[in-house]
Each structure stands twice: as structure tokens, then as C-alpha cells.
Amino acid sequence: MCSERRVKEILGIWVLSLCLVWVQNGVGVHSSSPTEESQPYRTGFHFQPPKNWINDPNGPMYFNGVYHLFYQYNPYGPLWGNISWGHSISYDLVNWFLLEPALSPKEPYDINGCLSGSATILPGPRPIILYTGQDVNNSQVQNLAFPKNLSDPLLKEWIKWSGNPLLTPVDDIKAGQFRDPSTAWMGPDGKWRIVIGSEIDGHGTALLYRSTNGTKWIRSKKPLHFSSKTGMWECPDFYPVTNGDKKGLDTSVQGNNTLHVLKVSFNSREYYVIGTYDPIKDKFSVVTNDFMVSNTQFQYDYGRYYASKSFYDSVNQRRVIWGWVNEGDSESDAVKKGWSGLQSFPRSIWLSNNRKQLVQWPVDEILKLRTKQVNITNRELAAGELLKIPSITASQADVEVSFSLTNLTEIELIDSEVVDPQLLCAQKNVSISGKFGPFGMLILASKNLTEQTAVFFRVFKGPNKFLVLMCSDQSRSSIAQEVDKSIYGAFLDLDPLHEKIPLRSLIDHSIVESFGGEGIACITSRVYPKLAINEQAELYVFNNGTQSVTMSTLNAWSMKRAQIVPIG
Ligand code: DQQ
Question: In what residue span(s) does the Glycosyl hydrolase family 32 N-terminal domain sit (predicted)?
Fold first, then answer.
């Protein structure tokens, strides 16, 4: 005879199996509806739990056929606190099951928060998590955790190592400036390496540690990299890249054609440099501009996007990144909404063919959410023209558009080395007419255009090449006064004389993630329209320049909702 407990277990497994089948087939079982009048800012296909606070993505990994996403999470409310590792799993990076938190702040070494960290898959294969604990004295220490049961396909339960903390802030490391261990990589000497974010003598630093067994870590005399131009570095990420086929590389891979990326988080932005890495000397030599030496410093995203973390997806041989997209409204709004924070849509990331920068693009699995489509080809947009794109759900859409220009003469001159693109977008906003531009899209626009988020381009001439400026302008995104209305900008390294100027925007109620030049510059905005919500939102393309531009193609799709389903 079955005991009551056994019956519950069997029922639980049955319900879970059914849920897995439903979600794998894209059938909805439950999630809160973003179309509810009271929740117009909930997203349809960006990751967010049903309620509460989230921040940094932590320890993303692919293991045994399952994607795991952990994230900084307050299980008890919509503001920062009780910081735990929320845990969700997916089979396609689109639809998610929400599990119980994997790590909760319960031990003396993490009682004030299980802060950010990374996963590493050791030989076996056997995943581990390295994370920062804010200890009983509010010192930041590094800890180790591993799955309780490797044969559980979902790795639901995680155990903290009995020898924690692994590392404490000693010598010149300040107690509050020692956090966010990276994924480990192995050098040719068989030793594992990690970097940890810090600030030493006022300089942003990626401290380097080595270990033979994963539990005893020795600090290298030299950091992997540091900068005298920045303060504290958070969430360092260090990984190899190569060009040619958009493929990613596993974190320990070395090769002749390989460069390395160091990404660090500071000033609310995600800055990266590219360089060569000698794993014998552990010497990283930057080949792009180093951190903060120029206005054209590379960022993963020139908008609202922070504390990102990448992982190698071995089944699709790609590197995927997630980033935290925080709110631009107030704490009292968060309390009213009952939630705060989103994760960006996961992006593939690779080295551009000219090996000068990174390229990002939403993972292909997003295509399964596309539904009703509108297509327009070769449509001239006359000076001052505004064209409404009909028939799609403009509040939840994926739009790809590309523009081409001719007769590129007598264009305004600027020097991208001295001009800050974000300031330029603010000075030359959407209402200021130039020769070529502004042209682009008006997103989440209300019927009379009182509200609109303009994502657009302008073309300038630099000292020796054309410059394409991409802007995401939130200044008219809402009639509400108290929400952030920043204007973001970036230069695109493309030649408008010979190339089209492509733009893709993922529009999802309160987030607009835009990819310019097929992913050579990304800008994420958070917006809180009062009028342009749900079915009231409209989408336009426009040209407010004095010259006509050709819209070579426009494809826009209504998007289905992803399933984000809690399971116990
Ligand atoms: N957030 C985490 C830290 C990290 C910061 C704590 C970045 O570990 O440095 O929630 O957003």
C-alpha cells in the first residue's frame, strides 16, 4: 500500500512531468497576465518571477540538457533584502520553471546576503557554485556550494561546503570590496583560475586566484588587470572568443586564433576590453582601448543593463549572456507593483569578423514566440514622414528594420573621439531635424504621440569616415513625471555608404531592447507609459531628416508570451 507521502510524491512527479511536456510544447499552464490593467509593466517574454525583487543574474549554466539561471532574489518583498539565489530552469532559454531558492542567507559566512557568483562545470561533469557571502560582520567572503544530488535532473537542492568561507578579505583587500567570483578556467599547468572584483589602492581590480583542488585558492601577486581610471569593479567575466562563425568557446579553451574578453561592471555600466591572454604567465594584454581612456569605450549595452554574466552553452556551442535590467521608477512604485527588476532576453555573444569588438543577438530560440507578421519592403520615407505599422501587438513585438541611404554629401562633421554619443543624442533629440536623420522607430507610442520611445539613427561625417549615431530616447516615453527619462546613445562602426543600417527592437511592455548594426551596439531602455499600454500602444517608423531614406525591409511580429511557471 502507498503511504500518503508516497502518493503525494507520485502526484508531484506526475504534475511536474506534465508541466515539462506543456512547457516544452509551448502550452501555457500559469503565469500572471501582463495585460491586466493593474500590471501594465509586467513583461510577456522577458524573465521575471511572479513577484518580488531580483537583481544580478548569477551562475548561468547548461548541464545535462537543462539551462539553469540563478539570480539575486528577495523571496519576501519587492525591495532589496534577504538576498538569496533564486533558481529557475529551462529547456529552451524562453520558457522557465521557477524552483525554490538554491542558496539562502543562513550561515555566519552569508547571513547578510548570498551575493553574486558563478558556476563552473568541473570534470565529471560536476557543477559547483562560487559565490560571495556578506558575513555576520558584513565582510565579503567567498564560498563554495554544490548540488546535493547530481542525479536530480533539475539540481534543485544545493549544499554549502562545510569548509566555508573559502576566502576572506585580507592584506590590502577591504572587507566591503571583495566580491563576485568568476567562472573558473584551467591553465596549462592544470590549475584552476578565477578572478574576483575588487578595488585596491583606489583602482578597480580583477584579483586573480589559483587552485589545484577548488577548495584552496592562492592569490596571485599580480591581478589579472586593473585600472587607475575607475573605482571598484563588480561582476568580472573573463572568457575566450574567436571570430568567423558566431560560435562561442568554453572558458578554458586556448588557441592561436583566440582573443580574451574582460568585462567588468562599474558606474552602472558593463564595460569590456579585448586582449591577448598568456595562460602560462597569466598575462592579459589589452588590444582595444583600455577602460575609460576614450568616449568610444565599448559597453555590452549603452542603456540600462548591469552585472551581466555569460556562460558557455555546450549543446549549441555558443556563449550566452544575461544582464540585470533594473527599474526606472521609484521604490514606492515597486511596492505598489509588488516586484522590481528584469533579466534581459538572453543574447549570444561573439567576436566581430574584424576582431575589434563583440556582437550580440537575441538567442535564436526567441523565434518560437513570433506570431503574426507584417512585412514591408523598399519603402521610401520622405523627409518628415511618419508611417504607422498596423496589425501587430505593438506592446509585445519583435521588429527588424533596415534603412539605406544614397547621396551622402554635405554631412555635418563631428569627431567621435571627443564627442560623447549619449550627450549628442540628448542635444540632437528626435525633434531636431538633420540631413540624414533622425530616422528610426517610435515605440510604445500613444495615439496622439504624446508618449513615444524613439529609437533612431543620425549620420555624421568623422575625420576619416562616416559615423552612425544610434539613440534610444525615453524623454517622451511617459506622461508620468517621476520616472527615469534618460536618453542613451552609441556610435555604430558601419559604413552607410556601402552598408544598410539595421535595427532590431524587442518591445515588451516596459522594456525596449535594441540592437543596432546587427548587434554591434545594444541599448536597453525601461519605460512606463501611462497611455501607450497593452492594446493602446502603437508602432511607427519615421524620418525626421531633410533627405529621404529608404526602408529596405521591415519585418515586425507580434510575440507570444513565454511561460514562467512556479513549481515546488
Ligand atoms: N550586486 C551584488 C553584488 C554585485 C552587485 C549583490 C552588482 O555581488 O557586486 O546583490 O549589482
Answer: 46-362
